[in-house]
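Prompt: I keep going back and forth on a fold encoding question. Comparing notes only helps if you start from a blank page. Show me how you would write down a chain together with its backbone fold. Please set it down just below, with no commentary around it:
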Amino acid sequence: MPLPRRTRIALAAGSVVVAVPAIAVIALASIDWNRARPWLNERISTAIARPFEIRGELALAWRQQGQVLPMPHLVAKDVHIGNPRGMQAPSEMLSVRQFAFAVELLPLLRQRIAIPELRFDHPELLLQRDAGGNNNWTFHRDDQPSTWKLDLQRVVFSKGTVRYIDAVTHVDASANVDTVNDPRYGVAWQLQGKWNNQPVSGSGKAGAVLSLQQQTAPFPLSADLDLGGTHIVFAGTLTKPAALTALDLQLKLSGASLERLYALTGVLLPETPPFSTEGHLTANLGANASHWIYDQFTGKVGQSDIAGKLDFQTGQPRARLSGTVQSKLLQVSDLGPLIGADSNASKEARGAEERQPGNKVLPVETFRTDRWTAIDADVNFKAAQITRDKNLPIQHLETQIHLKDGVLSLTPMNFDIAGGRFTSTVMLDGSGKVNAHAIRATLKANASHLQLKQLFPSIDGMQATVGEINANVALAANGNSVASLLGSSNGELKGAVSQGSVSKLMLETMGLNIGSVVLTKLVGDKQVKLNCMVTDFAVTNGVMKSRLFVVDTSEARIDINGTVNLGNEKLDLTLQPDAKSVRVISLRSPIYVRGSFKDPEVSVDKGSLALRAGSALALAVVAPVAAIVPLVSTGPGETSGCRR
């Protein structure tokens, strides 16, 4: 029985639909694709604006992998891609022993090239950027967007090498990649080279399959690196590889100084003692800007602990660092490298170029202001306790660190010390706008209610001393180190000690009242009423000149005059003690404090002392008992006061 006409037409149409692809499959499979290599090489070279060549065999096979229709698998051996014109040697960007991929057929009807998997076997990849910023990984794009879309789902990378050369950041590093039998990672790599002119080496692992379609699928990464002495260990994932975003890592860092991280991160951090830190690093790496967050980190800098959160964002006009850092216990010695006040051994360990001269006390190491304009910062820092030693704790330090356009300010910088409070504001202009080779600095500080016995706890006799200090400092200077800043400073220092009491033994020793010292040692020390102590120094071009410096008690008055030269670190002070009551065997004479900060010299007026000694010797010949008379001082009486 003949079939109806409509049925015959439907069957014929169906046969054509099935036959055409089948014929196409047979035809494509029977073609010698090696003959098409010159044509493919030429067309692809033109499309990507750089040399492309398939030097080995080219074959097409049809395989069915869970699809309705089989997919063509193109396999090319010995594939080479050159650098774009103008890029210096090495001239080749990529060579692959075998390059293979499959294409889904049905998406072609919608002008979409769907590649489920792109496989590179034994590749040698070179990523390169020259000093002008031109790179070899950006391919030529037509002005008119193509109607065809590429959908690359995943990349499989087997044994090979990757080299990265960057003239902008001074990087030349190579990694040898090999497959590993690991349930989490598919490849392992060994790295060697230079990064920002620092030697870099290490190893790590990564996934063998990079999914570009499932953006939430984690791509595992881990590494253990050494970069110029900084040790870096991380493990985590990359969850959006198509956009090179969403890094999520557990990160460990350690090294000689936090400042060394600038070469790696571009983040400006201060000079410090050796450090170690561990925390959670997340990042979004955008095309024009990136955002990094280092959260829940803990660690140590020297003997001090640190913890907190830092947020770093790139952008224009410059990158920005913000966050909060806390410390439970901060050692004063760990702050030394910030201003170059650490030892020469410490300077050598952290790679400082300048060494402290043996005859200098004030730090001469220059500030590196050339980096201050590379970043803006707004970081809050708190320290619960700061110790110089067990005897002088500083508590509750808090400061807001601002850095904008090369101007660093600490507004405010406050802390508790010796039972009182120290408040200050500090501004350091390192922008170079005023002086290209120096910092313009200002300091305003106030100390209130500092307790004497807490301020000098290790000095004999001070534990029985009471009274409190109040002081004000206002200085302005220009220089490129602590020494040069203080050596050029202008301003004033004022201070006063309110009424209280002071150790008699300490005063007797300062007044050279030998007999009273002996008696005090025999019968014990006692407290002497302190009427006042006032200091007033004018500072001009680094020279502190005493306008008023008086210590007045119920038993003595000491006037101090002279200068302290911060430029050449020289002392020239005269202490004139004057007793208010009778002293036995008093050698009261002017006391001179001279010499350098490093080696101060204390001496007595030899002329006055010789005159008294000569009189005593003459009287001793006539009447030994009378010899004591010239050595007895009655003093000016019971007047007191801190005014001249």
